[in-house]
Amino acid sequence: STGNVTILNSAPTASLVSPENGNITTNRTPEFSWSGNDLDSDSLQYELNITRVFTTVNCLDSDRYVTKETLLGNTTYSPTSDYLKCLWDNGDWYNWSARVYDGEEYSSWSSFRNISIQSSIVISLPTDSINFGSLGLGESNDTTDGSPAPIILRNDGNALTNVSANFTNLWNSSIGAIPSDYYRYKVTNVTGNCFVYENSTTSLTQAHITTNAIIQKLNFSQSYHTACSNTSIDVAITVPSDEQNGSKSSTIIFTGSLGEKY
Description:
By secondary structure, the protein is an all-beta fold. 2% of the residues lie in helices and 36% in strands.
């Protein structure tokens, strides 16, 4: 006797590997990893879906739908060309899932996991002091010509950062006490587009004892974000006419805070 035999394809399945569900990281280009299983031992291709989930509608970021043509059979992916922009600090996170294709049919999308990107606010001072040398009464000097060199402040974190500053008095003279034109400062872009000019102190301004914002949204520089991350802090001084002889010094305290608040 004879009969017909129908061989059916077994649908593949996809499983997520890492990060674990609920992961919180400061890496804005985390690596996503998954695996596929197929009973027919077919050659497998994959697709990945990273979806923004946010409570702040002003966080502008696109969903990432990564096709099999992009992944080329790889089971890992990192969004290095377009870092994740919505932060857990603002109540935002991402869901991600994967599915597999065996040449005939797609699996169901895996159960999603969520991942949250947390800010890391780190600033440093590659150049942290200025020495104006000896000046006579009424003499002035500043750092705008590079001699002496200005203070250099750098964003070493993973997010746009606002910077505030407060100064201690430089002079003993009462007429030179902060705030006065005898001690002024401003911030300057090092290579352009380092920070947002609006509400940043970009013209010479009297130094202040109180803590005031001086830089808005200083850029950060990591492997996935190559914008300028440095700014110079120029200082201009004039010796008051009644200042007594002796060494003078002032301390400036810089404080960083998240500049990606919506």
